[in-house]
Amino acid sequence: MALERTAVNPWPWSVELGYNQGEIVTGHTRTLYCAGQTAMDGDGKPQHDGDMAAQLALTLDNLEAVLAKAGMSLANLVRLNVYTTDVDLLFQHYGVLAARLGAAGAAPSTTMLGVTRLAIPNLLVELEATAVA
């Protein structure tokens, strides 16, 4: 059975912001639960201290690397949790995230949470995702 995704949006405002309130997924054969991805290099060292835009871009690169290793892409995302130590600063750079998701045709159900800190000091954003294929 082919993968089918049906957006669930009782209100139009979330679609205008680039995400769905919910998604019904049928016919999937694989589900990938991604650990939180951050702005870490290949050696596990944090990058781009204090630069939200650069951290967000690298975090997305790292998420895409996990997805690719599983034979998936951003288009397969059905859930995205965004954790940040500075919600206002993240909103200033939200276009980085929205552009990448939009280019992939992805509008996963999304939650954004402001947190006191992330596990690694100086990191500003973490993305936790679920994908289906």
Give an overview of the whole structure.
The mean pLDDT is 93. This protein has a 4-stranded mixed beta sheet, with helices on one face. Helices cover 29% and strands 26% of the residues. Helix 2 (52-69) packs parallel to helix 4. It is globular and about 45 Å long. The protein has 133 residues and is an alpha+beta fold. It has helices at residues 13-16, 52-69, 87-92, 94-103; strands at 4-8, 22-26, 31-33, 77-84, 109-114, 125-132.
**What low-confidence regions span 5 or more consecutive residues with pLDDT below 50?**
none
Count of domain modules: 1
How would you state the average pLDDT, rounded? 93
What is the C-alpha radius of gyration, as a whole number of Å?
Answer: 15 Å
- CATH hierarchy class name: Alpha Beta
- At the fold tier of CATH, the topology name is 60s Ribosomal Protein L30, Chain: A
* CATH superfamily annotation: RutC-like
Helical segment count: 4
Shape type:
globular
CATH architecture: 2-Layer Sandwich
**How are helices and strands ordered from N to C?**
EHEEHEHHEE
Biggest beta-sheet profile: 4 strands, mixed
Strand-residue proportion: 25-35%
Organism: Sinosporangium siamense
Protein name: Enamine deaminase RidA
InterPro entries: RutC-like_sf, YjgF/YER057c/UK114
Pfam family, one: Ribonuc_L-PSP
Would you kindly provide a brief summary of this structure?
This protein is α+β, with helices and mostly antiparallel strands and about 130 residues long. It is built from 4 helices and 6 strands, in the order E-H-E-E-H-E-H-H-E-E. The protein has a 4-stranded mixed beta sheet, with helices on one face.
